[in-house]
Amino acid sequence: MAEAEELRAALLGLRRLKGRVAELEARARAPIAVVGSACRFPGGADDLDGLDAIARSDVPVIGPIPASRWDASRHAALAGVGLAGTLGDLARFDADLFRIS
Hints:
The chain is mainly α. Helices cover 36% and strands 4% of the residues. The longest helix is centred in the first third of the chain and has 27 residues, at 2-28. The mean pLDDT is 84.
């Protein structure tokens, strides 16, 4: 009789776990929605409308690399590269968030 009770308890436990697995699997397949975006581009665009405006205009977004951002002596492989599309207000960039320095 004790064996029957143990088997019954094990069966109930299995049913409960199967339900939990099904719930977790359904949650993993749930649809998601992207409700916003954030971006910064050379030329001062900080949203998708700004990027579109730059793409449609003749405003140059490539220019000399600011001396404060480039130590040519540390990047010999890129010697001679003097132009880039850079972002203004570099202080707003959160390098720690992206684990870079």
